[in-house]
Amino acid sequence: MAKAKNKKRLLADVLSSKKSVVKAKKENPFEVHVNKEKYSIIGRKLKHDRGMPGVSRSKALKRRKDTLGQEYLNKNKTNSFKDKRIGEKTMSKEEAASARFVAERLKQIKTKEKRHSLFNLNDDDDLMLTHKGQTLEELEQFEDPVSSDEDDDEEMGKLDSEFTSSAHFGGGQEDGEGKNRKLAIEDLIAEQKRRKNEISKEKEEVSEMTQILDSNWRSLLPLMGKLSKDDEVKPKPDSYDRALREMIFEPVGGVSDKLKSDAEILKAEKERLEKLEKDRQMRMLGETEQSKKSTHRSADDLDDGYYQQQVVEDNQVLAYDLKGKHDDTNDEDISEFGEAEETKKSGSVEDNDSEMEEEEEENEGTNGEESSEESSEEEEDNLDDLKDESESESEVEEPKKVSASDQPKPVQITESERRKMMEKASAELPYTFELPNTYDELADLLKNRNSEYQNVIIERMIKSNHPKVIPENKKQMNVLFAYLLQHVNDTFVDATPKSINNCFMILDRLCPHLFDLSHINPEETTASFQGVIKEKQTDYRQNEKKYPDLDTLVFFKLASSLYTTSDFRHFVCTPSLMAINHILTRASVQSATDIAKGLFLVTLVLEYTQLSKRFLPSALNFLLGILFLSVHKKSVEVQRIIPPFKSRGATSELLVLSEDDDAESISQQKLIAADLVNPEINVSFKVRALNAALNLATDFLTLLSDNVGAKYFAEPISKILAKLQLEKYPDFVSESAQKVEAIIAKITEKKFTYLTNTNQKPKVLRLMEPFFDKVYDDKRSHKPGNKDTLVHKGMLRKLKREKKGAVREVRRDNAFLSKVKHKRRLESDAERKARVRQIFSEASLQQSELNAMSRKKKHL
């Protein structure tokens, strides 16, 4: 039996030892994938000849579950907890407890210090205790006697032994004097109070005497001379100091001094004009503010302050004294006072209007005999008067509050004075105007008016009907803009040498109003102006060889004043510039007006291109043509010129001076407005036209000096300048020609930089190095080449490989996430279906119970 037991024990040991041995896992042959090669090479070791895709796939899946799957599950979840306790993870329990104790104590100390600093008065020098205007530090410098309270306490504490023995230990019995303990204490208290009062009284007397001595000492200081800096005589402040003090104590503006908006300013201006117009209407009817007021007076009126009574009978002013007698001496004074009051009420604006009317009538009576210079001086005078008028209109004083005794006395005026006032008021311009419904209304309103009157009328019309005050007038302002353009056109249609200056004055006065109107409704006003340019260009194309009239050229000038010329493309300025180019290219020069109009257009081209620095060839060609017209042509020499100018013919020497012409005595240098409508060519016009062309050529060449082809623009002008006979012209023409030659010399000095190929590196000489031929090179080996090139290609291959691997991993991650989402969706659907089945089962049970209850009720 013993042997059998030993055998069983041995078998158990063997079995246990077999279980403990770890067997090596054998590869499943169905999971191993062998990568076969097309060509086998002896000695080559391959890394990827055998693989296990199933195992790799399972490992990748497990790795994605641990990383990407967990991130997807924790998406949009913020249930993380951070343990910020001191030493929770880095220290032991004892160290953490001591560290927390130290931190708590530091926190308590800081809190205590912070509270202590709030009530610490010694930290701030400004917060110092004072006594009677002096700080405690100053008081400590003097000898401060001990206070009376301390003396009293010391003396009161010194009691004799008899009082102590009798009062404290006598048992309350009467002493020899017949006083008990209570009476003795009361006497003691009374005695102490008396002594205390005497001491305080003595101190008050001492302080009063001290103050008297101090005051006497201060009174004696001036007699003793300058003993301190405070007694020095201060110098009187100069003008700078006084101005500085005035600026310091100048009152600061309050809320009432805020700036007004544009709408508020326009509204106030409209109300002011309406008030002035109402006053003018009253004066036209022969009424004044005083006469319009009620003159009813009660019987109890004592007439305080009135010493005279005025009565109007049969156009006579009667004055009576207090006794009832007539006083003739006051009649003239009263009439003069009435005229003065009426003059004050009419205002300076009406006076200016009447003066302008008289000047206009005088100018019409002269029938245009005065020269253009005198007319320009009159226009300047009218402008000054109108400025004074606007200033007087703007100065509207607020009504002052006066007492009953200070109010002016009611004054009656005579019938003749009333008639004069009515005539004067009717001759004045209205202060408010309605917007015209038709162009004829506006034309009748501005007819036979000079530039200043037209300016005032349009200004008052816009202020009275501005869209910021009346929004309904926004569309009507566009109509007014179109009417003003038509008015400008009609003004320049029949322009003559005598009226041309007035036409340009009207344009100058209306241009600011047109600018304001163009910004009220930009889209519609731009379309209106663009339509005018198209219409003028269509009319010109009917006869392209002739220069258009001034009613066309003036709109090109107006376009540059109202709109920007620096834009690359503009709805108004770009068509206007193209129209000017067309005119300068096609229109032929036949007379003085053509030359003046051409120079006017060239000036506009300079204005259009000055900011954008563009180049218009027709403008330089026209200036070249003007110089060509000033050069004498020889019969043998052939000179070429670009059309529209002709090299031969009667018009090829329009500006050439003859031998009989005396040009040196001419002093005027610039062209005038009358040259645009005067077809005659005289010596003065020839000189001024040549000088204007030279000045414009200087401006154009200066503007184009930075251009690459500026040399080719300047060469033709330089050749014609060499042929001009400048000795026949005045000195200012020679100076203008020298300026052109100087800018041409500056341009021609510049050298061109020709385009060349880029410099290439020289080839390196071949070195005597041996050349090795490769015996065998399969397609996996790299081609021979430069080292940098090979490295670059190798990096590209690695980049491509990594990119493909990254794309593959991203694709697999997306597939994994889609599977996870699909699995979660199936789980949620299964859970929802289970809940629905449960709900249906519970509902069926409830329904069955309900049916059973209903059946029982029926049987009952």
UniProtKB/TrEMBL annotation:
Alphabetized Pfam families for the sequence: Nop14
Protein location: Nucleus, Nucleolus
Record InterPro entries: Nop14
Gene Ontology CC annotations of this record: Noc4p-Nop14p complex; small-subunit processome
Entry annotated with the keyword Nucleus: yes
Family: Belongs to the NOP14 family.
Name by which UniProt lists this protein: Nucleolar protein 14
Organism classification: Eukaryota, Metazoa, Ecdysozoa, Arthropoda, Hexapoda
